[in-house]
Amino acid sequence: MRDTRKAWPGLSLYERFEEVVVVILTGLIGLVIVAAVINLCFRVVRLIIFGLLDPAEHSVFQAVFGMIFTVLIALEFNHSILSVLHRQESIIQLRTVILIALLALARKFIILDASKTEPLTIIGLAAAILALGAVHWLVRDQDRKDTQAGPGAAPPRG
Fold first, then answer.
1. CA torsion 85→87→93→96, rounded to 10°?
2. Residue (of 75, 46, 85) closest to 63 by Cα position
3. For the CA atoms of the chain, what is the radius of gyration?
């Protein structure tokens, strides 16, 4: 926030608007994260108190890890928004969006009951993960090339 206050006079109207939106979104997502963590804690404590946290019970672990992944996804989303506020990036980067989508699909696979899910749905989710993984690899490879070229180098053509 201190950096934002220092930079505020030199920002354009749109950049100021973007900063305000980022602060509001960060606060709202922060509230959602806090609520999700509190809910997760209550559910885990209830499971322990009532003796339902049985290692052999697959559905309980699916539910708990699904909730944990939800919190991790929200944290990553919030982190990507905060990078705009810290002036590390001017817009949300494609790599971050792909990472969040991969986390969401991984969460889906964790909570998925394979015995009750259509095979075509599983194939579709697997294809989506492979496609996102390939795009992530390509974007990561491009970032590596840009880093090797140096900060003053012109971006590669093509």
1. -60
2. 46
3. 20
Cβ-proximal residues to 94 (8 Å cutoff; 6+ apart), any chain: 135, 139
Question: Which tens digit of pLDDT belongs to each residue from 3-20?
Answer: 666 777 777 888 788 888
Q: Are 86 and 80 in contact (CB under 8 A)?
A: no
CB proximity list for 24: less than 8 A, separation 6 or greater: none
pTM: 0.72
Give residue 146's pLDDT.
Answer: 61
